[in-house]
Specification:
The protein has 173 residues and is an alpha+beta fold. It has a domain of 120 residues. Helix content is 62%, strand content 9%. α2 crosses α3 and α5 packs antiparallel against α6.
C-alpha cells in the first residue's frame, strides 16, 4: 500500500492529524459499521485523545474537500464519522486482529511518522529563513539609512549653493 495514498486520507481537525472511520474501513477492507462496532466493543482502549466524533460543521467542511458522497436516498452517511488520532489508529491493530489490519496499520503509522518528520523539517527551515530575513533586513535598513543620510546631505548642499546670496553692500558702490 502506498504511503502517499494514506497521506491523502489524513486530515487536520481541531489542530490534530486524524483519519476518519470510513477511510480506515476502506484501507482495512471492512465496512465502516464493522470497524465502529469493534471500537465500541473495546471502548476502554480508546480514550478521548485517541478517538472523537466530529461535529456536523466539521463534517460539512471536510465534505466540501472530498467529493465522495452523492446526495439522494441512501447515498449519504447517517451518522457523523469518528476521527482517529495516530494513537487511536495504532490501537486499532489490537482490536482488528486480521493480518490485513496489521499490515495496513504499519503503513498508516509510517505515514503519520513521515508527516510529522516533514512538518518538523519544514518548521526548522521556516525558522532558519526567518532568522536570515531578520538579519539581512537589519543590514539593508542600515544601508538605506546611510543612503538617505547622504542624499539629504547632498540635497542640503545643493540648496545652499542655489540660494541667493545676501551680501553687505556699502554706500560707496
Amino acid at each position: 500500500m502506498q504511503i502517499e495514498k494514506i497521506q491523502t486520507k489524513i486530515y487536520e481537525i481541531r489542530g490534530l492529524k486524524v483519519m476518519l472511520d470510513f477511510d480506515l474501513a476502506e484501507l482495512y477492507e471492512v465496512e465502516t459499521k464493522v470497524l465502529n462496532q469493534a471500537v465500541k466493543r473495546n471502548i476502554d482502549r480508546f480514550p478521548d485523545d485517541f478517538i472523537f466524533q466530529i461535529s456536523r460543521d466539521e463534517y460539512n467542511s471536510l465534505r466540501s474537500q472530498f467529493v465522495t458522497l452523492e446526495t439522494g436516498r441512501g447515498k449519504y452517511t447517517k451518522y457523523l464519522p469518528y476521527a482517529f488520532t495516530e494513537q487511536g489508529v495504532s490501537m486499532l491493530s489490537s482490536v482488528l486482529k486480521t493480518s490485513k489490519a496489521i499490515h495496513v496499520n504499519i503503513q498508516v503509522i509510517r505515514a503519520f511518522v513521515f508527516m510529522r518528520h516533514y512538518a518538523l523539517t519544514h518548521k526548522d527551515l521556516t525558522e532558519r529563513l526567518q532568522e536570515l530575513e531578520n538579519k539581512y533586513d537589519q543590514q539593508f535598513n542600515d544601508v538605506y539609512d546611510a543612503i538617505n543620510f547622504l542624499m539629504q546631505k547632498d540635497n542640503q548642499e545643493t540648496e545652499q549653493k542655489q540660494r541667493k546670496r545676501i551680501d553687505f553692500k556699502s554706500d560707496k558702490e
